[in-house]
Amino acid sequence: MLVVMQQGATDEQTQAVIDRLVSLGFTVHRSTGVMHTVLGGVGPVDEMDPADFEAMDGVKECHRIVSPYKLASRHFRPQGTIVKIGKVEIGGPHVVTMAGPCSVENRDQIEKVAEIVAQQGAQIMRGGAFKPRSSPYSFQGMGEEGLKLMRAAADRNGLLVVSEVMDHTQIPVLIEYSDILQVGARNMQNFNLLREVGKLRKPVLLKRGISATIEELLLAAEYIMSGGNYDVMLCERGIRTFETYTRNTMDVAAIPVIKKLSHLPMIGDPSHGTGRRDLILPMARASVAAGADGLLVEVHPDPDHAMSDGAQTLTPGQFTEMMQQVRAIAAAVGRTA
Amino acid sequence: MLVVMQQGATDEQTQAVIDRLVSLGFTVHRSTGVMHTVLGGVGPVDEMDPADFEAMDGVKECHRIVSPYKLASRHFRPQGTIVKIGKVEIGGPHVVTMAGPCSVENRDQIEKVAEIVAQQGAQIMRGGAFKPRSSPYSFQGMGEEGLKLMRAAADRNGLLVVSEVMDHTQIPVLIEYSDILQVGARNMQNFNLLREVGKLRKPVLLKRGISATIEELLLAAEYIMSGGNYDVMLCERGIRTFETYTRNTMDVAAIPVIKKLSHLPMIGDPSHGTGRRDLILPMARASVAAGADGLLVEVHPDPDHAMSDGAQTLTPGQFTEMMQQVRAIAAAVGRTA
Amino acid sequence: MLVVMQQGATDEQTQAVIDRLVSLGFTVHRSTGVMHTVLGGVGPVDEMDPADFEAMDGVKECHRIVSPYKLASRHFRPQGTIVKIGKVEIGGPHVVTMAGPCSVENRDQIEKVAEIVAQQGAQIMRGGAFKPRSSPYSFQGMGEEGLKLMRAAADRNGLLVVSEVMDHTQIPVLIEYSDILQVGARNMQNFNLLREVGKLRKPVLLKRGISATIEELLLAAEYIMSGGNYDVMLCERGIRTFETYTRNTMDVAAIPVIKKLSHLPMIGDPSHGTGRRDLILPMARASVAAGADGLLVEVHPDPDHAMSDGAQTLTPGQFTEMMQQVRAIAAAVGRTA
Amino acid sequence: MLVVMQQGATDEQTQAVIDRLVSLGFTVHRSTGVMHTVLGGVGPVDEMDPADFEAMDGVKECHRIVSPYKLASRHFRPQGTIVKIGKVEIGGPHVVTMAGPCSVENRDQIEKVAEIVAQQGAQIMRGGAFKPRSSPYSFQGMGEEGLKLMRAAADRNGLLVVSEVMDHTQIPVLIEYSDILQVGARNMQNFNLLREVGKLRKPVLLKRGISATIEELLLAAEYIMSGGNYDVMLCERGIRTFETYTRNTMDVAAIPVIKKLSHLPMIGDPSHGTGRRDLILPMARASVAAGADGLLVEVHPDPDHAMSDGAQTLTPGQFTEMMQQVRAIAAAVGRTA
Question: Do C243 and B214 touch (CB under 8 A)?
Answer without folding.
Answer: yes
